[in-house]
Amino acid sequence: MPKETAVYTHGHHESVLRSHTWRTAANSAAYLVGSLKPHMRVLDIGCGPGTITADLAALVPDGHVTGVDHAPGILDQARATAAERGLDNVEFAVADVHDLDYPDDSFCVVHAHQVLQHVGDPVRALREMRRVCKPGGIVAVRDSDYAAMTWYPNTPAMDDWLDLYRRVARANGGEPDAGRRLKSWALEAGFTDITATADTWCYASDEERAWWSDLWADRTLASAYAERAVESGHADGELLRTVSDAWREWGKREDAWFAVLHGEVLCRK
Q1: 3-state SS assignment for residue 46
Q2: Which terminus in the chain has less CB density within 10 A, N or C?
Q3: How far apart are CA 125 and CA 43, in angstroms?
Q4: pLDDT digits (tens, 9 = 90+) for 144-168
Q5: Closest C-alpha among 52, 32, 44 to residue 70
Q6: pTM metric for this prediction
Q7: Nearest 5 degrees, angle CA 5-CA 8-CA 12?
Q8: How confident is the model at residue 6 (pLDDT cuts 50, 70, 90)?
Q9: Residue 29 and residue 88: Cα distance in Å, rounded?
Q10: Whole-number Cα distances in Å, 113 to 32, 46, 48, 53, 217
Q11: What was the pLDDT predicted at 3?
């Protein structure tokens, strides 16, 4: 089975972690929460700083959660998150979703949030997730869909942001419009019992607009995404500054509104 071939577009700059550490089971895995039982063993793939992982561990107090990520450096923060919450039923390790180092039928639930959009072969990744899931268990996957994101008011520079991000993500080997493809990928991976749903994040209040616009303005100038946009020839400094400024101007608008659509699938093995 091949090793990871895609490059994680965002990296782990502070502006990226500002978003990742906001994520919880409630706002990012609500479609799964109702299926969790106290005794379950859970594998959380692409755990990042561990906020969702820690929430999952709290929801399976008699079970165990293993959080894995392809980037070793972020796991120290994940461990600190779990320690701060006093959780003793969670552990973290480095892993590649294309080649998981776990036996067949190891976990009751295999979860991945915002992962398949960044991997080189999402169908193979789902097959590997299915392999380590127990019979009767659940593979739960949620991904955003960039082409389906929508906002008001519109400006040419915001359109430039979306076009640029999608080009950079695809050049890195990923699929930024993954949300709409999850059911198709799951069927191709061999699942037959699939519940497909959708959910949104919406940013409209003064606080939400400021937070969302500032993190994307900063990410556009200073993250790994910005570096890769320039290195790959998809943007220059002038374009990045224009896009960053457009994000800040958008965030100042009282009438501004932004919605992020996510596709979700619960797949029973």
Answers
A1: coil
A2: N
A3: 14
A4: 999 999 999 999 999 999 999 999 9
A5: 44
A6: 0.95
A7: 150
A8: low
A9: 21
A10: 11, 7, 10, 10, 23
A11: 46
Lookup: tokens for 264: 């979700």
β-sheet bridge partners, residue 152: 257
If we measure between CA atoms, which residue out of 259, 175, 168, 256 comes closest to residue 220? Answer: 168
The CA-atom distances, in angstroms, between 24 and each of 1, 2, 33, 77, 161 are 32, 31, 11, 15, 26
Amino acid present at 188: E
Fill in the amino acid letter for 120: G
Question: Dihedrals φ, ψ of 176, to 5°?
Answer: -65, -20
Percentages of the chain per state (helix, strand, coil), in multiples of 5: 45, 25, 30
Consecutive H or E run containing 265: strand 257-268
How far apart are alpha carbons 43 and 60 in whole angstroms?
A: 12
Mean per-residue pLDDT for 26-30?
A: 98
- The residue behind tokens 């900063």 is 218
Q: How far is the C-alpha of 167 from the C-alpha of 161, rounded, in Å?
A: 10
